[in-house]
Amino acid sequence: MKKRMYVLFKGLILLTGILFACQKEKQPNDKPETPEVRVLFEQPIVTNLENYVSKDPNMVAYQLEDRMLMTAYSLHRYTSGEHYFFPITAWDMGEFTGVASSLPFLHSQFSISTANGRKGATAFQAAGDAVGAINAPHLFPDIIEQMSGTLIFPVHPLHATFSQSKRIRPFADNRKSLNMSFEAKMPIANGYGTNGIGYLGPNFTLRDVVHGTVFYIGAQIWDSRGTAHEGLMVDDCDKCSGNVMVPTILSSSSRYITQMENSGSFRGNAWSDFQYFGWSITREDMTKIIKEIKENYPDRPLSDNLGNYEVVSFLLGTEIVLPTKSDKYVMATAIKNFKVTITP
């Protein structure tokens, strides 16, 4: 069961293409660099959310690269019709995420069409320098009825995929680390006394350019159970990628990653004020990860040369697991100052 709790990582294969700004927004690699850091991505200010939400229930939109899309995968799969996402104007998402939506709501709040305007349903938000998301799958009973087994609902307000020509090898030329930082708050996390589960965390998808082997490295920052799995696993659920996942807890004692200075740590409770989180994959971390994957999964060939690994994508997202159709869970989160960098 614990493997099913962490299918957040599979979204990197199933949900390609989110969060690289549109033509009038910042583009990857366009920020001036300093000798100390190379900026791969910096969160843009979203002024019209319509340019960032996927409207394609047939999943074609997920194949887009180098642009921003916000996605809710399970709801996408079971929703049809041209007007897939639609503006929310009757209620304020800020009541849930804790950040005020930009005005007018017509451009800053979008929900799934089948929500029929239900307040508090799964939705995305533009809020000045922040983006917000509500994940509330139990408010879509028509979709839940179409599903079977353990019900999994990823909702990703931040997710980006690099096109082949823009993929960066973070450890080439003896670079020191691949880094991700952001500020987050999650004022609402409620299972209504049921067995519903929620968690929040970022991760990277990395690929060995020599062998083509893909794997995921993630840092959990919150879990409704108060703890999180740390150790190698395979994304082997039905229709999943089959790739190795490396989930770990963000703390000073993380097994596979390095916590940045002044960063918050993994927590099991909701919080109402923005908190800074930052983590790195250092050369030492990467060497350890490769060694353990090769030892535990010898059928997954990996290069010993750290310069042979490229960043395919990254995300920061929520996920809810409902063991049965009667379970419930709701999460509301807001993110700002999201950045991916390389330390030379």
Structure description:
This protein is mostly beta strands and 344 residues long. Helix content is 11%, strand content 35%. The protein is built from 7 helices and 17 strands. It has helices spanning 2-5, 11-14, 73-77, 94-97, 105-108, 141-144, 283-296; strands spanning 38-42, 71-72, 85-87, 109-112, 123-127, 130-135, 151-161, 177-190, 197-208, 214-220, 222-223, 233-234, 244-249, 258-259, 271-282, 309-322, 330-343. Strands 1, 3, 4, 5, 6, 8, 14, 15 and 17 form a 9-stranded antiparallel beta sheet that branches. Strands 2, 7, 9, 10, 11, 12, 13 and 16 form an 8-stranded mixed beta sheet that branches. The chain is globular. Mean pLDDT is 84; it is low at 1-33 and 57-62.
What's this model, at a glance?
This protein is mainly β and 344 residues long. It is built from seven helices and 17 strands.
Strand content: 35-45%
Number of strands: 17
Structural class: mainly beta
The ordered H/E elements are HHEEHEHHEEEHEEEEEEEEEHEE
Spatial separation of the terminal alpha carbons: 40 Å
Report the helical percentage.
10-25%
Overall 3D form: globular
Q: What is the averaged pLDDT score? A: 84
- Poorly predicted residue ranges: 1-33, 57-62
